[in-house]
Amino acid sequence: MTTTLESRESQRTAPRAFDLKLGGVRELNRTLHHAADGDAFAVDHPGGKHSIAVGVNSEVEIEINGHVGYYAAGMNQGGRITVNGNAGVGVAENMMSGTVHVTGDASQSAGATAHGGLLVIDGNASARCGISMKGIDIVVGGNIGHMSAFMAQAGRLVVCGDAGEALGDSIYEARLYVRGKVASLGADCVVKEMREEHLAELGELLRAAGRDDDPVDFTRYGSARTLYNFHVDNSSAY
Amino acid sequence: MTLTAPDQTVAPALPAPALAELGLRESATFDRATIADIQRAAETGIYDIRGWGAKRKVPHFDDLLFLGASMSRYPLEGYREKCGTDIVLGDRYASKPLRLDIPVTIAGMSFGALSANAKEALGRGASAVGTSTTTGDGGMTPEERGQSKHLVYQYLPSRYGMNPDDLRKADAIEVVLGQGAKPGGGGMLLGQKITERVAEMRTLPIGIDQRSACRHPDWTGPDDLEIKIAELREITDWEKPIYVKIGASRPYYDTALAVKSGADVVILDGMQGGTAATQQVFIENVGIPTLAAIPQAVQALQELGMHRKVQLIVSGGIRTGADVAKAMALGADAVAIGTAALIALGDNSPRYAAEYAKLGSAAGYYDDFQDGRDPAGISTQDPELSARLDPVVGGRRIANYLRVLTMEAQTIARACGKAHLHNLEPEDLVALTIESAAMARVPLAGTSWIPGATGTGL
pLDDT of B252-283, one tens digit each? Predict the structure, then answer.
C-alpha cells in the first residue's frame, strides 16, 4: 500500500518546540529517539544544520521550519517529517517507512538507498535523486538532475518535470514515471508501455503526494534487463 | 582462475629437469599460466573473475625478522610473565568502545559470498576467544548477530540490507571505502550465488550477476564523509565506534583524511587481502602490498598526534602469529584475517583434492569463490555443499587458529621483552631485503641502512 502525506488519525498533541539556535542537533535527535508514537515536534531555526531528525524510529510528527543541511530525516522509520524549506544532500537517505515532505528544493542523492516510505519534494531535486533506491516512493514536483535512479533496485520515482542525463543507468526493478523531457537514458534503461496498472499506481502515488497531475501525461521507464547477466556482447556497456 | 586452457586433456608434461635436458626453456614472460590466461580470454571474450587476493610475490612480513632479546634487552619468561593481548577499539568518540581479548579480528565477508554456516562458524570461533567478526556486502544475518559477541556492521556503497535497526544492534560500524584486493572497485556477486534468501536481503532479482557500486551514493570525499560519520553517530546516539576501511593505495593521505573525517578506527587492507569475486587484472595490478602500506598509515597517525588514539587495524596476508607481531611492531593496534580464516575452516584442504580436480582446480589453487561450488561448503549458497561445514566444528577450528596466532605473537613479544603485544616496535625488526627495508622502514639486517630514510619517505 502506498504511504500518503495525509496526517494520521492519531491524537495530535501540542507540538514540542525545539529552537536549534538555542539547542543542538544532538539534543533534538536524542529526544526524538525516545519519543512515543503520536508525539509532535516543531523545529525552528534549523539553519542548514546537518543530520536533523535522523534515526527517528516512532510514528512522530516533525515540522522543520527552514532549510536543512545534509541527511535530514536520514533512515527515518515511521516519522512524518516536513521540511518547510530546502534540503541538502541525501534527504531521507535510507528511509525505511513514514513520510518526508520537502516543500522547497532538494540537493543531490535525495532518497538514496531508501527501502520504504514516501519522499515528496515539491520543488526540484538535484543529481542522483533515488540513487540505489530499494523500495521507496519518491514524487518530485519539479525537475531532477543527472544520474537519477542510478542502480535503482526497487520502488517508484515520479517526476512531474524533466529528468537530466543518464536517467536510470544500470537500473534494476524500480519503476520511473516522468512527465516532461528526459535528457538521456542511462545504460539498460528504456521506455516502457504504460498499461492500466501503471496508470492506476501512478495516480495513487500522485494523490499520496497531494498532487492532481494527470497520469496519462507521463511516460514510464524501466530496466531492459539486458545487463542482468554478464555477456560478451554487452562489453561496451560495462 | 579456472584452468581452461585447450590442452588440459593432454597427458602430464615431462618433469622440468627432463624438459631442460631436452633443451626446452619456458618463457618467464609468457609462462604457462600466462598462456592459459591469453587463451582463456580468446575463447570467452570476457575477463577472468576470481576470489582470493593478489597471488603475485610481493615484499611481505616474511622479509622481516625480529631481534630477540639478549645482553642489551631482557626477554620475558614464557608462561610465567604476562604478555597482554587485550585491545580497546574506538575510544576516541564512541561511548561504548569495543574491548577485545586478542588483537586478531575477523575481516568483513558477506553472507552471500559465504554460506550461512561459514558466517556462523566465524562468529562462534571469534566469540570463543573474545574477538569480533564483521558483516559484508549483504547485510546482517540473525545467525551472525546471534553468534558474534562483538559484531562490526559494514556500511558499504551498495547499502544492501542497510537499516537502522541493524545499525543499533551492531557493536561498531565500518564505513567501507575500499578493500586491498580492489581499491577503487565495487562488489560483484555472480548469479550462481544469488539465491532467494541472498536476493531478498539485497532487494535484487534472483540469479542475476550483481554488481555493487564503487562509490557511496550520498557522499564524496573527506568533507562529506565527516558529515556522514556524524549522521551515523547521531542515529546511534554516539555509542558505536566508527571505523573507516581503506584499500591500500595512498595510505598516508587516506589515513590522515579518515582521521580528520572523525573515524575512531582505520582499517588498512593491503593488496594480498582477499575478495570473493573480482577481475583478476584488478586483484593483481591495483593497490600496494600490506608491508608497504603500514608505515605510511602509521606516519600519518603520528604526525596528527593520533597514533594509538585512532586505532589502526591491518589486514591483507596475515597468516601466522609472526605476521600479527610484525604488523603490530610496525604500528598496527590490531590485525584482521579473512583468507586465513577461510583456510582454517577447510578452504583449499587437500581433503577435497578429487573435487577440486573435477572443478578444473586443485587444492592450494582453488580461487573460484564466485562460482558458488566450493567443495568445502564455505564460499557457496548451495545447501548440500554448505551442509558439509558444521558451524560448531568450524567455530572450534577458528577459535583454535585464533589462539595459535595469539600465542605465537606472544612468544615473539616475550622474546623481545614486551609485556604486551602493543609494546612491539619497529626497533624490534630488521629486513632481509632492500625492498622490504625500504617499505617497512626498518634497517636491512646487519646494517643500519633504511633505504630512503633520509628522503621524504613518501
Answer: 999 999 999 999 999 999 999 999 999 999 99
Angle between helices B221-235 and A25-33 (to 10 degrees): 40
The structural domains of chain B, with segments of one domain joined by +, span 1-46, 61-350+389-440
Other residues' Cβ atoms within 10 Å of the Cβ of residue A60 = 25
Q: What angle do CA B140, B142, B146 make, to 5 degrees?
A: 110
Topology classification of domain B61-350+389-440: TIM Barrel (3.20.20)
| ipTM of the complex in this document | 0.95
pLDDT digits (tens, 9 = 90+) for B305-344: 999 999 999 999 999 999 999 999 999 999 999 999 999 9
CA distance A176 to A132: 13
| Secondary structure (DSSP) of B14-64 | PPHHHHHHTT----SSS-HHHHHHHHHHHHHSS--EE-SS--S----GGGE
Element (H, E) at A136: strand A134-140
Q: How many CB atoms lie within 10 A of CB B196?
A: 10
Residue of B nearest to A109 (CA): B218
Min Cα separation B45/chain A (Å): 6
**Most A CBs within 10 Å, among B156, B235, B261, to test the A interface:** B235
Render pLDDT for A66-92 as a digit per residue (tens, 0 to 9).
Answer: 999 999 999 999 999 999 999 999 999
Minimal Cα–Cα distance from A5 to chain B, Å? 22
For B236, name the nearest residue in chain A, comparing CA atoms only.
A55
Digit-coded pLDDT (tens) for B337-354? 999 999 999 999 999 999
Checking if the pLDDT of B2 tops 60, the result is: no
Residues of A in contact with B211 (CB under 8 A): 170
What pLDDT is stored for residue A236 in this prediction? 65
Question: What residue spans define the domains of chain A?
Answer: 16-228
How many other CB atoms are found less than 10 A from the CB of residue B430? 22
Architecture of the domain defined by A16-228: 3 Solenoid (2.160)
How far apart CA B64 and CA B162 sit, in angstroms, is 41
Inter-residue contact A118 to A140 (CB < 8 Å): no
Nearest residue in chain A measured CA to CA from B225: A70
Strands B188-189 and B210-211: antiparallel
Within 8 A of A153 by CB-CB distance, chain B residues are 202-204
Residue in B209, B224, B231 nearest the CB of A74? B231
With 90 as the cut, is the pLDDT of residue B103 above it? Answer: yes
Query: How many beta-carbon pairs under 8 angstroms link A with B?
Result: 106
Residue among A26, A57, A109, A132 with most chain B CBs within 10 A, to mutate: A132
Distance CA B437, CA B360 (A): 39
* Alpha carbon B75 to chain centroid, angstroms: 31
Pick among B163, B194, B234 to test the A interface (most A CBs inside 10 A): B234
Identity of the residue in B163, B217, B237 whose CB atom sits nearest the CB atom of A131: B217
Residue B162, min C-alpha distance to chain A (Å): 8
Phi, then psi, of B291 in degrees rounded to 5: -60, -40
User: Sorting pLDDT into bands at 50, 70 and 90, what band is B5?
Assistant: very low
Q: What is the pLDDT of residues B391-446, one digit of tens each?
A: 999 999 999 999 999 999 999 999 999 999 999 999 999 999 999 999 999 999 99
Cα(A225)–Cα(B6) distance, rounded to whole angstroms?
33
- Would you say how long chain B is, in residues? 458
